[in-house]
Amino acid sequence: MDVDTRLLRSFAAVCEEGQLTAAAARLFVSQPTLTKQIRQLETLLGGELFERSRRGMAPTPAGRALAERAGPMLAGWDDALRATRAAAAEQVATLRVGFEGGIINLMSRRTVADFTRRMPGWQVELRQNNWFDPTSGLATGEIDLTLWHAPPYLAAQYNVAVLGEEPRVAALSSGHRLAAQAELSFEDLLDEPFVAIPHEAGHWRDYWLAARERGGRPVRIGAVAHNTDEWLAAVVCGQGIGFAPETMSRLAPREDVAYRPVRGLSPSQVGLYWPKDRELTPAMAAFVRSCRATVGYGATAWETGPGDGPGLA
Amino acid sequence: MDVDTRLLRSFAAVCEEGQLTAAAARLFVSQPTLTKQIRQLETLLGGELFERSRRGMAPTPAGRALAERAGPMLAGWDDALRATRAAAAEQVATLRVGFEGGIINLMSRRTVADFTRRMPGWQVELRQNNWFDPTSGLATGEIDLTLWHAPPYLAAQYNVAVLGEEPRVAALSSGHRLAAQAELSFEDLLDEPFVAIPHEAGHWRDYWLAARERGGRPVRIGAVAHNTDEWLAAVVCGQGIGFAPETMSRLAPREDVAYRPVRGLSPSQVGLYWPKDRELTPAMAAFVRSCRATVGYGATAWETGPGDGPGLA
DNA sequence: CGGTTCCATAACCTTGGGGCATGGATGTCG
DNA sequence: CGACATCCATGCCCCAAGGTTATGGAACCG
After folding, report:
1. Residue A104's pLDDT is what?
2. How many beta carbons lie within 10 A of that of residue A70, not counting itself?
3. Nearby residues of B102 by Cβ (< 8 Å), 6 or more positions away
4. Is B308 contained in some domain?
5. In the prediction, which pLDDT does B296 show?
6. pLDDT at A170 over 90
7. Is the dihedral of CA B5, B6, B11, B12 positive or negative?
């Protein structure tokens, strides 16, 4: 008797949401599809998993029995996925590195060249993360390392080799009334509409809206952007303002966008991240060293942070 | 990224067999199907899981990484299946009992009536096991209890409420030359062809061939039977002889079949079995008591064994 | 050098799972 | 009190996934 883990994920989502409609939205499937999936599980297991009502779906004892076990099973599979993919990449001497947003432009030919010198025969595969998947494929084992601007509180969930810190700045349409000021204060921006990244990004979205710094005050969302270009366009059109790492002002300078420092906005931590339960392989360590040696070459504000991360003595 | 557990089972089978052809036979699918399944896994995981050669399939490092984790995952799912099905049956106040072979005839209306008296509102669902599935659905949680003639060495793998012991007798065509003897000796039967049950039954098959008692001496297989009727027919036609529990001589008496006691053949243990990791529910306990009170009513040789099993004080 | 043993490929067919549109039951609010 | 909103179920259609049989190709074995 076999199942697709997709059914278990659907089941878990319905358990958490307490209703089909919401779970279907979260899973990006239609509601009838979820109805069928749950029924399928129920047929397989020989009993009702949920009690249906107009309020939604409440798990039965059988449903609870499954719910207890579905989580560990899914975690087990994700782990297997990660480990096997890592081994497969190792097999073909490939390091898979993800980059967040435009930060990839900071990498130079020198970085890869340096890495190749340290690990002869190896190659680097670069993947730009999209804004939908804040884990950047780390969770599913699609990549080994990711170069991130992460908030320190998120960094605790990963192993990290810190490369430095970078201020977050505000981006405004150059015609914006506040663009005249050379420096802004965070309080002045509280009532501004913001260009947000998608909900799916979770903590990541909150971080770039500086939700924590707002002290519970709700954010006005002027637009939602799915990549850097959309984001810039929305800013230019005055749909809202946004926060970005300082490097963006150099990597994507535009006349119609004003980048301004913000008093009271914490900086972001720049570093290479990898999963907590993943050991640092020689190739990963070599890449960290290559980044230290070459990234930010020139005029960036980065400094080597105090925490070197495990295995990097 | 999702998988069907079927893919993992296929993968595990190929790992164990070391080649597609044999694994396909074991899984009852065609070899091209397995080829596709393994390829599918490899695509999903982004690398080769096996090294192909004319000798078969040898797992790569990635394959070994997955192999380590596939076992626990499958075990986890089987456990979830068992637990959820059990809870679902409990939900609708149903006890699912499996029976091996003709033993079901020993149950009487009294057994069920007694159970219903102990557990008002509950019902019993009886399923006759087939000879292909020696676990009788215990492993997959399709039933709660099974009434078995098990060899003592297999009994150690289950929780068991012993009901008694029963001699194994030999069944021969009445025209067989040995049928003239009132009692046979095991040694006389060593060179006889036997009517076996299917290979899929595993230990179970060996047990009814008395493989252990033969001291390594190979068995001649005269025919393979898939159920009691086939088995009896094969015996009658002289394709071979066979061993059976003594009750069979009373439940399936035929003029053309001679049942004879065998010196040197160990008896089988009769009892209700349930999985090691399954607690005894009130309904299960009640059924055990009902069997003790009613099964073998009349003239069976059964006695209550010394071991009562856990939870039956 | 034919035969055997394994795995891969091709062509075909059936099933199943997903989407859309709609229905039914039940609270809720004006 | 009736129209509406909410949430799950059903029916229909369609495409893709996965299974089977038949066949090919590479390597070992007498």
Report:
1. 62
2. 25
3. B228, B247, B248, B251, B252
4. no
5. 58
6. yes
7. positive
Domain assignment present for residue B312? The answer is no
Same domain, A35 and A61: yes
Last residue of a domain, one of B222, B244, B263: B263
Selected residue with higher pLDDT from A53 and A84: A84
Residues in contact with A202: Cβ distance below 8 Å, sequence separation at least 6, in sequence order: A134
Asked whether strand D has any atom less than 7 Å from the CB of A6, the reply is no
The amino acid occupying position A76 is G
In this predicted structure, what is the pLDDT of residue B303?
A: 36
Q: What is the CATH number of the domain that holds B41?
A: 1.10.10.10
Task: Find the CATH number of the domain harbouring A125.
Answer: 3.40.190.10
Same domain, B25 and B77: yes
Which residues from A are below 8 Å from B140, CB to CB?
A: 1
Please state whether strand D lies within 7 Å of residue A49 at its CB atom: no
Q: Is some CB atom of chain A closer than 8 A to the CB atom of B127?
A: no
Asked whether strand C has any atom less than 7 Å from the CB of A54, the reply is yes
Cross-chain residue pair B85–A45, CB shorter than 8 Å:
yes
Mean of pLDDT values over A65-90: 92
Are B68 and B121 in a shared domain?
no
Q: Is residue A199 part of a domain?
A: yes
pLDDT digits (tens, 9 = 90+) for A243-273: 988 888 887 788 899 999 999 898 888 888 8
How large is the average pLDDT for residues A86-115? 82
- Whole-number pLDDT of residue A55: 81
Looking at the fold, whether B188 and B256 belong to one and the same domain comes out as: yes
Using a CB cutoff of 8 Å and minimum separation of 24, what contacts does B127-130 make?
A: B127/B96, B127/B97, B127/B98, B127/B99, B128/B98, B128/B99, B128/B101, B128/B104, B129/B98, B129/B99, B129/B100, B129/B101, B130/B226, B130/B227
Single residue among A60, A82, A104 that ends a domain in this structure = A82
Residues A113 and A225 in one domain: no
Residue B21 sits in the same domain as residue B96:
no
Biggest distance spanned by C-alpha atoms of chain B: 68
Q: Are B258 and B273 in a shared domain?
A: no
CA distances from A291 to A103, A104, A312, B13, B272 (A): 13, 12, 13, 43, 66
For C10, which residue's CA is nearest its C1'?
A: B32
What's the domain count of chain A? 3
Q: Specify whether the CB–CB gap between B255 and B226 falls below 8 A.
A: no
CB-closest option in B61, B73, B90 to A73: B73
B43 and B125, same domain (yes or no): no
Is B219 inside any structural domain?
yes
Residue A306: the pLDDT is 37
Chain B residues within 8 A of A140 when measuring between CB atoms: 1
Residue of A nearest to B48 (CA): A88
Q: What is the pLDDT of residue A42?
A: 92
The Cα–Cα gap between B106 and B121 comes to 24
pLDDT for A103 equals 64
Interatomic separation, CA of residue B21 and C1' of nucleotide C1, rounded (Å): 26
Question: A144: domain range?
Answer: 92-166+268-294
Q: Which of A90-94, A127-131, A244-248 has the lowest mean pLDDT?
A: A127-131
pLDDT < 50 regions, chain B: 297-313
